[in-house]
């Protein structure tokens, strides 16, 4: 997580102070109320049934999404690269934008594509990594893909956030396009005036997109080390 799903961390630092105690208060007050009515009685079986059915439903959704992705990957094989880009971008943008703190209990964790699928959500780097992985799997050349660390202006909150996107270079149009989980339309890099590009990388190379940033600084950065970490875990876990 760069900024809490790369979108909400700045606000959530303040919201956590107000909302979490309120949620805890509601939780404890409801439990106190229940225990006063039914002292020394275990959780109602109806509640346990609800929790169990909720878990079963979540597992079915996860299973269905995996099946639909497998079908999708077969269907897009004959398509040209740009159509593959559109389909994969749309597919992953349907997942929930969830902070690392919520999902993993830590401020920073880069999930593998398999972990994103299992959790039914993730934050910006999880989306970018998954799109990169499955586009490569679909036959898009790696030299056409690179992840980019950017500083994004979020119009809705009038805030500036750290963010990660996937870039795709289309040789026929000689343009590079942005695949993003915030702005879900695919637009050329130069048209995304809300993004300030800092540096980019893939498994082959690093690029500086800001004259003040050197290659060696990119390789020493927390972001690049997180990228290497998720690659190592992806090598050990094959996503069908």
Report on this structure:
The chain is an alpha+beta fold. The protein has a single domain, classed as C8orf32 fold. Helices cover 52% and strands 18% of the residues. It contains nine helices and eight strands. It has helices at 4-7, 9-37, 45-76, 81-92, 100-104, 113-119, 124-137, 215-220, 222-236, and strands at 96-97, 121-122, 145-154, 159-170, 175-179, 187-188, 195-201, 206-208. The strands form two sheets. The protein has a six-stranded antiparallel sheet with strand order 6-5-4-3-7-8. β3 (145-154) and β4 form a beta hairpin. α4 (81-92) runs antiparallel to α7 (124-137). It is globular and about 45 Å long. The chain starts with a helix and ends with a helix.
């Amino acid at each position: 997580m760069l900024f809490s799903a790369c979108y909400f961390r700045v606000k959530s630092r303040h919201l956590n102070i107000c909302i979490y105690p309120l949620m805890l208060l509601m939780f404890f007050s409801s439990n106190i109320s229940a225990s006063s009515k039914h002292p020394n009685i275990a959780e109602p079986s109806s509640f346990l049934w609800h929790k169990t059915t909720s878990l079963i439903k979540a597992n079915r959704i996860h299973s269905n999404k995996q099946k639909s992705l497998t079908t999708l990957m077969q269907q897009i094989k004959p398509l040209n690269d740009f159509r593959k880009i559109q389909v994969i971008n749309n597919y992953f943008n349907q997942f929930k934008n969830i902070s690392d703190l919520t999902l993993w209990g830590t401020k920073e964790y880069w999930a593998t594509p398999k972990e994103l699928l299992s959790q039914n959500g993730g934050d910006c780097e999880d989306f970018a990594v998954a799109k990169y992985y499955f586009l490569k799997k679909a036959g898009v050349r790696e030299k056409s893909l690179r992840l980019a660390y950017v500083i994004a202006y979020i119009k809705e909150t009038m805030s500036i956030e750290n963010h990660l996107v996937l870039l795709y270079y289309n040789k026929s149009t000689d343009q590079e396009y942005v695949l993003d989980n915030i702005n879900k339309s695919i637009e050329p890099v130069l048209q995304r005036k809300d993004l300030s590009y800092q540096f980019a990388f893939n498994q082959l190379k690093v690029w500086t997109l800001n004259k003040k940033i050197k290659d060696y600084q990119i390789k020493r950065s927390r972001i690049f080390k997180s990228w290497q970490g998720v690659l190592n875990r992806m090598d050990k876990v094959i996503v069908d």
